[in-house]
Amino acid sequence: MPDTFLPAPLLTALQDLLGPSGILTETSDTQSYCTDWRMLYQGKCAAVLRPATTEACAKAVALCVQYGVPMVPQGGNTSMVGGATPDTSGKAVVISTTRMNRIIAIDHADLTMTVEAGVTLKAAQDAALKEGLMLPLSISSEGSADIGGVLATNAGGNNTVRYGNARELALGLEAVLPDGSVLNVMRKLRKDNTGYALRQLLIGSEGTLGIITTAVIQLQPQPRSRETALCAVQNTQAALDLFATFRKQDPAAIQAFEYMSGTSMALVNSLIENCALPLSEPAPAYVLVELASPRADDSLRTLMEETLGTAFENGLVSDAVLAESETQRQALWMIREEHAEAQKRAGASVKNDVSVPLATIPDFIERATAACENLIPGIRVAPFGHIGDGNIHFNLVQPEGADAAAFLAQDHAMMDTVAGIVRELGGSFSAEHGVGQLKTYMMPSWRGGAELDSMRKIKAALDPKNLMNPGKIFPDAE
Ligand code: FAD
Ligand code: MLT
Ligand code: ZN
């Protein structure tokens, strides 16, 4: 009998239900499910359950409820806020969706994909591409993050500026609720005003209200032309002005508009293979802009060249490189997508995934940089992000050669310093990564009163025993 907190009858019932490959109990097998991508948390679990169907998942949840066992839903385990990591008690089970991995259907009339939760975002994108369609959600972790995870966190990413967050893309949903019942709202309707939109309650609930098992996702026709450019700019204001210039020309053409500070770009150039700066010299900041169009003619190229030409003349852009092939386009995107990995390699970092009104971004970056440099001399302020959405990853990397643990011990001081400025500007302390366990302490002061109270009532109504991802979103003590 393996060494686990699970009562013997429960363990036997789960083994009978899930089969040998559906339950892991040895620490050597469960360890990777108990550590997060950032390696901030090291939890423990009684077992990892890997149901292959919604029915098995529902039965496993009902059994766990019967025995009072806490459950931690997990997809690709790429959470930036420890959302999918169990606590250290070892009493919870991780419920992994990786075996629910079928693409059920692609509907060309409705432009939808019906897909199980454990399909990685990349696999879903590739399946759409094969059919001449596009799943317009793109994040750097898409090779590991799965459909259940991106919906549970309402992921944003590079194409939000054009197509919205995961929330805007989901038409239908199936989920196992915390009592083991199955909520089936698998409709593919663009219009459906029949009471509460329960799928939206599950989306962004970070595993606290149930386990998403299947979804209907909206697709788009694959663009027939695309133009991608990396531009050097003098400062954040110039990046914003460039965004406004493109938006004025053709707002519907902007597929992505990403900002990278000089500091964060330099980390990528020096720490990641094949990511040298493809411009003649380093600049204070950069923008990666991608335009896309359903037309196959060269109008997009003209739009890109003319807009950048004007931007050069106005002094908004000092240098730029345009992708001349798909290989070059991917090389430019790799530079953007490796930002998180480069910062991980540079040492400990504190992430402030904030959003502020667009016009305030330059003020925000200037003030937050000064405040953090004042707080920790030598700190590497390395912001980047989805500037077209007002979402800046105001990430702080430890001073070179500093002690990582000592730096991380000051994480609340750094997060509170940044958050104070964000609050004054009318922003949010978490734009896309969620609350998880890392930022629960911020909830009472940011989302207190009727807002947090209503969230608690919803949680208590659906999960009265607080067994579904306990310790996430809600602070234990206030
Ligand atoms: P997990 O990490 O496994 O889980 C995340 C949360 O969702 C947890 O609370 C978990 O309990 C819950 N959960 C997982 N699956 C389910 C399910 N089936 N049902 C219910 N709850 C579930 N995020 C962005 O929004 N935009 C970005 O641009 C972005 N870039 C990233 C880049 C890197 C390199 C990394 C490591 C992360 C990035 N993230 C980004 C954060 C992360 O990838 C996303 O939050 C992603 O959506 C999580 O998916 P996952 O499958 O890994 O979920
Ligand atoms: C990204 O957009 O690459 C991630 O969300 C950012 C991060 O590392 O904070
Ligand atoms: Zn991001």
Automatic annotation (TrEMBL):
<keyword id="KW-0274">FAD</keyword>
<dbReference type="InterPro" id="IPR016164">
    <property type="entry name" value="FAD-linked_Oxase-like_C"/>
</dbReference>
<protein>
    <submittedName>
        <fullName>D-2-hydroxyacid dehydrogenase</fullName>
    </submittedName>
</protein>
<feature type="domain" description="FAD-binding PCMH-type">
    <location>
        <begin position="41"/>
        <end position="222"/>
    </location>
</feature>
<dbReference type="GO" id="GO:0003824">
    <property type="term" value="F:catalytic activity"/>
</dbReference>
<dbReference type="InterPro" id="IPR016167">
    <property type="entry name" value="FAD-bd_PCMH_sub1"/>
</dbReference>
<dbReference type="InterPro" id="IPR016171">
    <property type="entry name" value="Vanillyl_alc_oxidase_C-sub2"/>
</dbReference>
<dbReference type="InterPro" id="IPR051264">
    <property type="entry name" value="FAD-oxidored/transferase_4"/>
</dbReference>
<dbReference type="InterPro" id="IPR004113">
    <property type="entry name" value="FAD-bd_oxidored_4_C"/>
</dbReference>
<comment type="similarity">
    <text>Belongs to the FAD-binding oxidoreductase/transferase type 4 family.</text>
</comment>
<keyword id="KW-0285">Flavoprotein</keyword>
<dbReference type="InterPro" id="IPR016166">
    <property type="entry name" value="FAD-bd_PCMH"/>
</dbReference>
<dbReference type="Pfam" id="PF01565">
    <property type="entry name" value="FAD_binding_4"/>
</dbReference>
<dbReference type="Pfam" id="PF02913">
    <property type="entry name" value="FAD-oxidase_C"/>
</dbReference>
<dbReference type="GO" id="GO:0071949">
    <property type="term" value="F:FAD binding"/>
</dbReference>
<dbReference type="InterPro" id="IPR036318">
    <property type="entry name" value="FAD-bd_PCMH-like_sf"/>
</dbReference>
<dbReference type="InterPro" id="IPR016169">
    <property type="entry name" value="FAD-bd_PCMH_sub2"/>
</dbReference>
<dbReference type="GO" id="GO:0022904">
    <property type="term" value="P:respiratory electron transport chain"/>
</dbReference>
<dbReference type="InterPro" id="IPR006094">
    <property type="entry name" value="Oxid_FAD_bind_N"/>
</dbReference>
